[in-house]
């Protein structure tokens, strides 16, 4: 099992991570080696060594989840409302540039307006990631785009103006005759 790096886990993710650690405790009791446990549970040797040290000091209870690192400031009801408002789009909340979509700064402002709760931009990112939202950049296409003209340009103009690629290797080899040495 591989874990996401650099972000908070959902409650379900925390339960899954805890289950892996408790499975490791069974392997510790059986006397299995670090490399074997790491391979079986698909984690790093370093994690297994860290878990083993905690297990030696406090048993399987030391491997139990300590819960989230920070208490979430939005209640489940508030989160549901925020999610519904995000789905309505930025235009519904007075942000005039629909093409830009939701930015972390806009979501931060929305949370402040709706619930009078302050978040940092990084905190908003962690909150959204914890609840399964991801960073997506919309594909933008010019309205005036002419596909036929683009194909002609790629086929005819680009090959003429494109600068040949240079390499670090010499392009020619000069030889001198043994007599000129």
Protein model, in words:
- By secondary structure, this protein is mainly alpha-helical.
- Among the domains are: 11-63; 76-130.
- 51% of the residues lie in helices and 0% in strands.
- The protein contains seven helices and no strands.
- The chain has helices at 11-30, 34-41, 45-58, 76-88, 104-115, 121-130, 147-161.
- The longest helix is centred in the first third of the chain and has 20 residues, at 11-30.
- It is flat.
Q: What does the secondary structure layout of this molecule look like, with pairings?
A:
Layout: H1 11-30, H2 34-41, H3 45-58, H4 76-88, H5 104-115, H6 121-130, H7 147-161
The radius of gyration is: 28 Å
Order of helices and strands: HHHHHHH
Q: Which structural class do the helices and strands define?
A: mainly alpha
Number of helices: 7
Helix content: 40-55%
The beta-strand count equals: 0
Distance between the termini: 66 Å
Q: Based on CA inertia axes, which overall geometry fits?
A: flat
| Low-confidence residue ranges | 1-6
Question: Averaged pLDDT, please?
Answer: 83
Strand content: under 5%
Largest sheet: none
């Amino acid at each position: 099992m591989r874990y996401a790096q650099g972000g908070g886990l959902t409650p379900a993710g925390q339960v899954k991570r805890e289950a892996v650690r408790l499975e490791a405790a069974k392997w510790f009791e059986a006397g299995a080696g670090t490399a074997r446990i790491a391979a079986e549970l698909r984690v790093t040797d370093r994690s297994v060594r860290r878990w083993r040290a905690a297990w030696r000091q406090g048993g399987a209870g030391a491997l139990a989840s300590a819960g989230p690192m920070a208490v979430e400031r939005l209640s489940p009801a508030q989160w549901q409302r925020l999610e519904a408002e995000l789905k309505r789009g930025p235009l519904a909340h007075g942000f005039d540039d629909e093409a830009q979509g939701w930015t972390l700064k806009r979501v931060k402002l929305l949370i402040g307006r709706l619930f009078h709760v302050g978040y940092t931009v990084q905190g908003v990112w962690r909150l959204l990631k914890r609840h399964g939202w991801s960073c997506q950049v919309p594909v933008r296409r010019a309205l005036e785009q002419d596909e036929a003209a683009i194909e002609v340009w790629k086929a005819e103009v680009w090959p003429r103006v494109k600068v040949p690629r240079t390499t670090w290797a010499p392009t020619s080899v000069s030889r001198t005759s043994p007599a000129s040495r």
